[in-house]
Write a structure and sequence with these properties.
- There is one protein chain.
- With 400 residues, this protein is mainly alpha-helical.
- The protein folds into 3 domains: 196 residues, no CATH class; 54 residues, Serine Threonine Protein Phosphatase 5, Tetratricopeptide repeat, CATH 1.25.40; 139 residues, Tetratricopeptide repeat domain (Serine Threonine Protein Phosphatase 5, Tetratricopeptide repeat), CATH 1.25.40.
- The chain is built from 19 helices and 2 strands.
- It is elongated and about 85 Å long.
């Protein structure tokens, strides 16, 4: 409700919102079929978040300001100014208002936003469509977080007036009650965002295929709580970014069977995803150094080590071009993997990609030529074979 002195800022937001809205609608139309399938990818979720922020939240802000305006009229006052600028707005009431009426007017817009958020979250419980569920959850969480956290911080920073006016009102009993409810709702909101049960519920509702695999993994653990079944459950958690649950399941794997080497693969992948390449290499080496480890598992571990070593080199080099000397240990690791399972193409393919990166295109092409008769751990890599061939041949011609 607070009228900021720099009114053009609101107009600037609206001018910025219009092209962003057009781009968002274009992208939604372009990815319509993928967006409305029965399983949400990371790209789908990012697009839905954009739709929420660019298209839906401005409508929530408009209703927020309408809440102030309706409360002003209810109090018998007059709305002198009503301004909406996209993600922000204000209402200026004029009239002989009591402290209670003034407080209600300031509170009304924020209450509207909280109610919209709660309705969206409750509606998500009864919807089965993954994209609709995701959109409702994003709308609910963003709406409540905007008013209870973001607007509150902005208010006390002097950028937004509602909450500072509410908490400085000369009505201590009202202020205390509002503060208690406000704090309790913030705690509840944080639980919805970070709590294990809400996160699992959200993933299950938006990724039905994962939900079936997860339910099956849980049933196996319940019927037969072996290390391998806990490991399967841990991988299910990893696939949807539930790291805390993944680590707990891994702890159960170690407790049930400390000698199950497959657990080191997942431990390494977790560390790798967090950018801890040194820790990840140490985990993968636990498999490589065991004589009893299956050759296939060792090959996968060596490839994972190669990926980590390459990522570390690229991080250290920054914008500098990679040199053959800098990746020598990476190539050596992929060679070790290839020798363990000479019938498998994957390690040699990864070696070829590194050779292309450092300009050894003839060597890369030679490696790639020999892969067509081999088998693949990851069939998706075979689809990239032609692309790597093109990189090697074009670069080789350019050098000639």
């Amino acid at each position: 409700m607070d009228p900021l002195s720099n009114v053009p800022l609101y107009d600037l937001q609206l001018f910025l919102l219009i092209p962003l809205a057009i781009l968002t609608i274009r992208d939604a139309k372009k990815n319509w079929r993928q967006l409305w399938d029965n399983d949400l990818s990371m790209q789908d979720r990012q697009l839905l978040q954009r739709i929420n922020v660019i298209l839906l939240l401005p409508l929530v802000v408009l209703l927020h300001e309408c809440g102030h305006a309706v409360a002003t009229l209810w109090a018998g006052a007059r709305v002198q100014e009503f301004h909406f600028g996209g993600w922000w707005g204000y209402v200026v009431p004029v009239g002989n208002l009591t402290p209670e009426q003034d407080l209600i007017i300031f509170l009304a817009g924020n209450l509207v936003e909280v109610v919209i958020g709660l309705i969206a979250l409750i509606a998500a419980l009864f919807i089965s469509s993954p994209p609709v569920v995701a959109l409702l959850v994003y709308l609910g969480l963003y709406s409540i977080a905007a008013t209870l956290i973001i607007y509150t911080l902005m208010s006390f920073a002097g950028m937004y007036g509602d909450w500072i006016a509410i908490y400085t009102a000369p009505l201590p009993a009202w202020v205390f009650t509002i503060g208690v409810v406000h704090g309790a709702m913030v705690v509840g909101l944080l639980y919805l965002i970070y709590g294990s049960a809400p996160r699992i519920w959200f993933v299950a509702k938006t990724r039905p295929k994962w939900a079936k695999d997860y339910q099956r993994a849980q049933e196996l653990v319940s019927k037969d709580p072996t290390a391998i079944n806990y490991l399967n459950l841990a991988w299910n958690y990893y696939y949807v970014d539930l790291e805390k649950q993944c680590r707990k399941a891994l702890e159960m794997v170690a407790e049930k069977d400390p000698n199950l080497l497959e657990r080191y693969m997942l431990a390494g992948v977790l560390q790798q995803s967090k950018g801890d390449f040194t820790g990840a290499v140490h985990s993968f080496e636990q498999v490589v150094e065991r004589p009893e480890a299956d050759p296939v598992l060792k090959t996968r571990s060596l490839m994972a080590i190669g990926h980590c070593l390459l990522a570390e080199v690229e991080r250290q080099q920054g914008e500098k071009a990679l040199t053959p000397a800098a990746v020598a240990h990476v190539l050596e690791t992929y060679d070790q993997a290839a020798k363990l399972t000479p019938q498998i193409a994957d390690p040699r393919f990864y070696k070829a990609t590194v050779l292309n990166k450092v300009g050894l295109h003839k060597e890369a092409e030679q490696e790639l030529k020999e892969l067509r008769s081999l088998k693949w751990f990851d069939p998706a890599l075979s689809e990239l074979l032609g692309q790597e061939f093109q990189v090697a041949r074009k670069s080789d011609k350019a050098q000639q």
